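Sequence in, structure out. Go.
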Amino acid sequence: MKQDMIVILDLGSTENTVVAREIRELGVYSEIHPHDITVEELQALDNVKGIILNGGENRVVDGKEVEIRPELYTLGYPMISVDYPASKCEKQFKELPNQEELKQFVFEECKAEANWNMKNFIEDQVELIRKQVGDKKVLLALSGGVDSSVVAAMLIKAIGQQLVCVHVNHGLMRKNESESVVKIFRDELHANLIYVDATERFLGKLENVADPEEKRKIIGGEFIRVFEEEARKLEGIDFLGQGTIYPDIIESGTKTAKCVKSHHNVGGLPEDLQFELVEPLKQLFKDEVRACGIELGLPHDMVYRQPFPGPGLGVRCLGAITRDRLEALRESDAILREEFAEAGLDKKVWQYFTVVPDFKAVGVRDNARSMGYMVVIRAVNTIDAMTASIERIDYDILEKICARITAEVPSVSRVCYEITPKPVATIEFE
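Output:
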């Protein structure tokens, strides 16, 4: 990393990402690290210019206030504290500084340069990828989503035909999604693409598995197994490309942070992984991933495609996955996307999808009592996926969506609209 860096040490704040993003918006790179980072770990980071001790409501653990290692004060880095009683810091704030105070700290006290931008980031990553990979090949899971598409573009720029893309249909894709991925990447972009239909394999592994963390780990682990099998058919595959982004790492927890949920590409990888990972986006927030994609020359429609979790519909078919609920989920989601596009909401709403819980509710069909599934609609707006607000959908649009779902998906008896922001909810249900 050639860019200057401000390090944020987490001492119990719930707003670490807010601080990190504000610094990045000033054109200076920032990273969040645990409060007990060692001198050696800190000095191993590139171009650190200053440190922010970011305290908050969670700085007391088991009745004891967490503290940084005292020797960090002796390293000579400019240092400020926020809601943390650090007498050795020159400046202390009870709450986050406003923009001018933050600019003064970053540029005047830390002497950092505003050299954080996508052009420089891409140049850095291309150099690092070439150094890491050498003349070997990289295997990449290409779902067709934003993250994997941007990773593919980055790897193609760095190593060209040394990249082998694999699209795995795990049976948990949205309607017609696998067909679309093959058409775009193999037929139109002429990528070196291998298509694997592993539907029965994944659904068999997930049978009777209700715990969401276990589902994520099974899906992540099985993905690796599929890649290992494909790699054995090829020569020189030593690396696995991944679309891990910064919120994945933050939400999956560090050695001091609580885990919100394990992401399949962070917490769900098997210990006996046979590949070395290549993760060129792991320092980026979601909006930065999109900016990176644009800088790499990807089409706007691809870069701003509807987000989709790595485990796919597996974490939207709540509880133990059944084929009938999975089909109801896939069809209702397709209807929702069609109606949002018709209403122009696809360009306004960041993420929208349906969820089918693991229970039935009474309804009426053909003048008789019937039991059917409930479809829950969720539509949220966000910048970086760390917080999210609810989109206020016109009732007439919701009514039309409800009418279509209940008419076209016979196993559904009810349609609901979910209105909980993040926090306290997460964007996904599992």
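Check: The longest helix spans residues 212-232. Residues 254-268 have pLDDT under 50 and may be disordered.
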